[in-house]
Amino acid sequence: MKAASQKPVVIIGGGPVGVTAALLLARHGVRSLILERHQDIYPLPRAVVVDDEIRRILQSVGVHEEFATLARPAHGLRLLDARRRVITEFPRSMHGHHGFPQTSMFDQPELERLLRDALARRPECELRSGVEVVSVTQDTDGSPAPSGPVRVTFRRDGSDKEEHLWADAVLGSDGAGSLTRDAIGAVWEDLHFEESWRVIDVRTSRPVRTWEGAEQICCPNRPATFMRVGEDRYRWEFRLADDQNLDGPNGWERLRELVAPWVDLPPDASQGDDFEVIRQAQYTFQARLADRWRRGRVFLLGDAAHLTPPFVGQGLCAGLRDAYNLTWKLARVLQQGAHDGLLDTYERERKPHARHVIRVAVAVGWAMTGGQDRGAAFRRAVVGTACRIPGVTSAVSRDLSPALTAGPLVRRRPRLTGRVLAGTFCPQPWVRHDGRRVRLDDVLGDSFAVLTAVPPTAQMTAVATALGAPTVHIDHLSDDGTLANWLARGRADAVLLRPDRVVMDTVLAGTGDFTDTVAWAPLLHTARRTADAPPVP
Q1: Average pLDDT for residues 206-233, to the nearest whole number?
Q2: Rounded distance, CA 375 to CA 20, Å?
Q3: Cα–Cα distance between 489 and 506 in angstroms, integer?
Q4: How far is the C-alpha of 237 from the C-alpha of 196, rounded, in Å?
Q5: Span 222-244, pLDDT tens digits
Q6: Is the Cβ–Cβ distance between 280 and 199 less than 8 Å?
Q7: How are beta strands 49-51 and 275-290 bridged, if at all?
Q8: DSSP strand E in 92-239: where?
């Protein structure tokens, strides 16, 4: 094994998930190499929506300001019946829990270009395009669990010669047909949803009847989705019968009929120059989850690990959450010698979360637009009635990204009063710091952080010192009261935040100490800590 062929991390797949993972690793000082089979960014639109949690991740990699110039905040989601009457509405705030609009529409190639530009500015990151990975193997040393480095074999465009390199870890963000998934012996778990839909992306200057949000047409015969993506960009999704082809001589008339509720098109296609179909493609919407996300030092992210129908706009969001959850843990193991068991928490935390989001999407698909059985109409009526109950729509919106399940890094204990903060995200208000108005995460940095409403105790200080975490008193931040109210609702004096801004531990009101250091400290204890940093208490 030659030193020149060794890499700390190899990322297979240079889409938004893989590039974001590389940028996050770079923030923690970890070098990575991305191997991407395409020569350039795929130029046509695919993902078109992200939520405020994902915009916070984009903030962490330094592209949020540029993304804001490309994104279009949306008002939310409306469920409509076949006659386009509103069944219910799920409103989305312009300032969500994470400090950004709760729903943002965008063009994926534009986001990918931002991420690639950011990648080029990071010396820790390298991108090799036009490279096909042909195998990923690990040395088992005769034991069931692989150990040691991972060998990646690849070929460059136009060459049959196989080349090899070694990595301390491999991240497979190589999509639904993932070679990495096969390499770790993972198989799909079918979550019982599969439908064929036609997706149509359009650019037009014609007047379009829209409410600046997404619309879901709940009709068993012709369900549809419509959304405005940009200033003159729109997307329609239709579930069509096999014989309802939009190509050929009658394609324009069929398209004209489909989009008629939103925009008026001339009978003659030659007069429709101001209605440009950028792309139309047939997709099979599926609900699947890989049965394992890790083997040794090989991990699955994004569509390699999970597939969801697009009805709640969480496909790309789930992949970027994977990257945010895994990268800080991998950096702590590779850079500071933390226990390898820390990496087990990636699948333990992310898999149940992904399963939940997929089930929400499937529920929307079946209850509102899917199925033509006798119960379909009944399900739609029940959902419509339930959504008229005060508070239900806001609860469903929150449920798109629930708290992480309990585990070594999420210590959740039943409480008689107050919210359980562990496993939830810290809110991100605007704060004052060094005389400037900034977002909270810009003050906290990329590592752990202690956020407190009381003077820190000796134990709180010791924990912060051991983790290299800044201790920030909320009174010094001059926010709008968001942080104090959040801590008060959780009956907490202070919280310990992970690098991904999830609450790991709390100081309950009046107690003075974090409650569960014994549970998480062994995983985070580092073999290469600095001389003046004591072990975690």
Answers
A1: 91
A2: 42
A3: 13
A4: 10
A5: 899 999 999 999 999 999 877 77
A6: yes
A7: unpaired
A8: 103-105, 125-129, 131-138, 150-156, 163-172, 188-204, 214-217, 224-228, 233-238
Q: What are phi and psi of 474, to 5 degrees?
A: -65, -25
d(CA 48, CA 53): 15
pLDDT bucket at 367, cuts 50 / 70 / 90: low
The residue count for the chain: 537
Cβ within 8 Å of residue 287, ≥6 positions away: 190, 191, 192, 193, 194, 307, 308, 309, 358, 359, 361, 362
Is the pTM higher than 0.85? Answer: yes
Cα separation, 267 vs 457, whole angstroms: 75
The neighbouring-strand residues paired with 51 are 103
Judge contact between 82 and 220, C-beta under 8 A: no
Q: How do 163-172 and 150-156 pair as beta strands?
A: antiparallel
User: Which among 341, 265, 352 is positioned nearest to 525, based on CA atoms?
Assistant: 341
Distance between CA 469 and CA 466 in Å, rounded?
8
CB atoms within 10 A of CB 23: 25
Give the span between the Cα atoms of 230 and 113, in whole angstroms: 17
- Indicate the pairing of strand 492-497 with strand 49-51: unpaired
Cα within 13 Å of Cα(337), Cβ side: 5
**What's the gap between Cα 250 and its chain centre?**
40
